[in-house]
Amino acid sequence: MIQTIPVNKAKQDLIQLITNADKKRNEYTITVGKSSATIIATDELESLRETLAIMSNPIVMKEIKEAEEQVKKGKIITFEEFEKELQENV
Q1: Are the CB atoms for 50 and 70 separated by under 8 Å?
Q2: One digit per residue, pLDDT tens: the chain, 90 residues?
Q3: Is pTM beyond 0.85 here?
Q4: Which domain holds residue 71?
Q5: Domain match, 7 and 33 both
């Protein structure tokens, strides 16, 4: 859940807000007038960007859907089988 905090309060608690965003995964929206910005953990932002990049790529999404269909059909291999194939093709 995102907690909304006015900028004056955020200034006082900035170090704690950053620490909580990083360690506890808290999210904060800081407001000043009609403007706002959100504080989230850096690795969470990177993860969101990666997800967006994947979901925005039609080729990758097609490959994911094809893989999901293969799983539904039972066309899977174990990790050991995959590792063996990988070593044979290196």
Answers
A1: no
A2: 899 999 999 999 999 999 999 999 999 999 999 999 999 999 999 999 999 999 999 999 999 999 999 999 999 999 999 999 899 987
A3: no
A4: 57-90
A5: yes
